[in-house]
Amino acid sequence: MVRRGAEEAGAIFVTVEWPDRRVDLYAPAPQTEFGEDTGGRLFQRVLDGVDGAAITARLERERRFDSDLWVLAIEDREGRSFLDVAPEEPA
Predict the structure, then answer these.
(1) DSSP tag of 90
(2) Dihedral Cα 45, 71, 11, 25, nearest 10 deg
């Protein structure tokens, strides 16, 4: 865990670090992404394969909006997040 927020509140962000030091950032998915079958949390990837400075800057902006946010860090050789992720929209 990188940052602990309030026990009863705060959004959860997850970083996934690859062996080559690239990092992905996952944030809570918008409520519009939740279907009837979603019982838990749903995330979306908001940064993909960036350096740590980009992650730090994004999380700092998020902290100004929600000072109670949580940040969890995952290191995985295959870049897996182990999260329920909302489908990405086509570019």
Answers:
(1) P
(2) -10
Q: What is the pTM of this model?
A: 0.81
Q: Which residues of 17-54 are buried (b: 16+ CB within 10 A; e: fewer)?
A: beeeeebbbbbbbeeeeeeeeeeeebbbbebeeeeeee
Whose structure tokens read 């700092």?
Answer: 60
pLDDT at 39 (0 to 100) = 58
CA distance 71 to 19: 19
| Domain-located, residue 51 | no
**Residue 27 corresponds to which amino acid?**
A
Mean pLDDT by 10 residues, the chain (91 residues): 62 94 94 59 94 96 90 94 84 57
> Domain containing 13: what range?
1-27
What's the number of domains the chain is made of?
Answer: 1
